[in-house]
Design brief:
By secondary structure, this protein is mainly beta. It has helices spanning 41-47, 208-211; strands at residues 10-12, 15-19, 22-23, 53-62, 67-78, 80-86, 89-96, 107-111, 116-120, 131-136, 139-144, 153-158, 163-169, 174-181, 186-193, 212-220, 229-233, 238-244, 247-254, 257-266, 271-279, 283-284, 287-292, 295-299, 302-303, 321-325. Among the domains are: 124-235; 242-329, no CATH class. This is Kelch repeat-containing protein.
Length: 329
């Protein structure tokens, strides 16, 4: 797995489902000219996402049996996908094909019981950045990392009717990184952009701290009228975010320390908790999957880029997994 092939996964009946991914290109031998400083053919073929083969396989990991299996073939080869589970169905969206940097508008449903696919009504909107989702009461809520110039809109998909409902218009300008659907509201982990008090436009600066506020958990009511930040989380060098029920989980690393910390926040009560600390690895581009209140899975990953005296191995970790059990580090 690499930065172009880390999909967002779903958990159904204690099984983790992964759709899409990439394979490393098979490079043919070629002659390197030692006098040519511009010979970047190897780097181009090795790291250019268009040179990588998208996968049409979906994999499932049985948590109880600690076993992987090939679950099914996807309708298309996808480099990466996003997904959200509704009961025993998994909805896949924003699939990236080999020939595109952008996510598709197609919406697919995979029935984990009948093992079949069906195409649903396509996403009727454009978005900027990553597309996030959460579900509750047979509805899926979608919003983008940046929205359209960060004028955030939450789009609502009715699963039973296969229809798109009236969207929710947020009354603030946010850079959203993850969302959680609760009965009474939607919680989003985001940064609030600083806006000009007269024009209402975002004040962009070269320094991120001058463009938006610190990270926080914002409460969005379903009518979109009330929004406030009640939790703050300092951003470290790398910070992978996942969700489980009402919790947001953070895999936190720093650029000069060969260790990681896992934290979580209860979005209902705003209480922070350290789940695991001083973990002896420091990876990026991982699958970070909490599966219950006491168990988290980490799959794949690669070491962060840093100085030559780093204790982290320089080679990419292509096959690596770890289970973190709370209180057992």
């Amino acid at each position: 797995m690499d930065r172009w092939g880390v999909p967002e996964v779903s958990v159904v009946d204690n099984t983790i489902y992964i759709f899409g991914g990439v394979e490393e290109p098979k490079l043919e031998p070629y002659i390197v000219n030692p006098d040519d400083d511009d010979d970047d053919d190897y780097e181009r073929r090795m790291f250019d996402p268009f040179e990588k083969k998208a996968s049409d396989l979906a994999y499932a990991y049985d948590i109880d049996r600690d076993q992987w299996r090939v679950e099914t073939k996807s309708p298309f080869p996808w480099k990466s996908t996003n997904s959200v589970a509704v009961n025993r169905d998994v909805f896949i969206f924003s699939g990236m094909s080999k020939s595109s940097y952008y996510g598709s508008h197609e919406l697919w449903k995979y029935d984990t019981v009948r093992k079949n696919w069906s195409q649903k009504t396509s996403l009727p909107f454009l978005w900027g950045g990553l597309l996030h989702s959460c579900s509750i009461d047979k509805k899926i809520y979608f919003t983008a990392e940046g929205g359209s110039h960060s004028r955030n809109i939450i789009h609502v998909y009715n699963v039973d009717l296969d229809e798109w409902e009236q969207p929710i218009f947020i009354n603030k300008r946010l850079r959203i990184e993850k969302m959680v659907c609760l009965d009474e509201s939607i919680k989003v982990f985001a940064q609030e952009y600083k806006v000009n008090s007269i024009s209402g436009e975002i004040t962009y600066n070269s320094e991120p701290a001058s463009t938006y506020s610190d990270n926080g958990v914002f409460t969005v009511h379903y009518n979109g009228t009330t929004l406030y930040s009640d939790v703050s989380q300092e951003r470290k060098f790398e910070n992978t975010i996942a969700r489980l029920d009402e919790y947001l989980y953070f895999y936190v690393t720093e650029s000069e320390v060969n260790e990681a910390t896992i934290k979580r926040v209860n979005t209902r009560t705003s209480e922070y908790e350290v789940v695991a600390s001083n973990l002896p690895y420091n990876f990026t581009n991982i699958l970070f999957v909490p599966t219950d209140s006491n168990q988290i899975f980490l799959f794949g990953g690669s070491p962060l880029f840093r100085s030559s005296d780093s204790r982290v191995p320089k080679d990419v970790v292509s096959e690596w997994s770890h289970k973190v059990v709370k209180g057992d580090q």
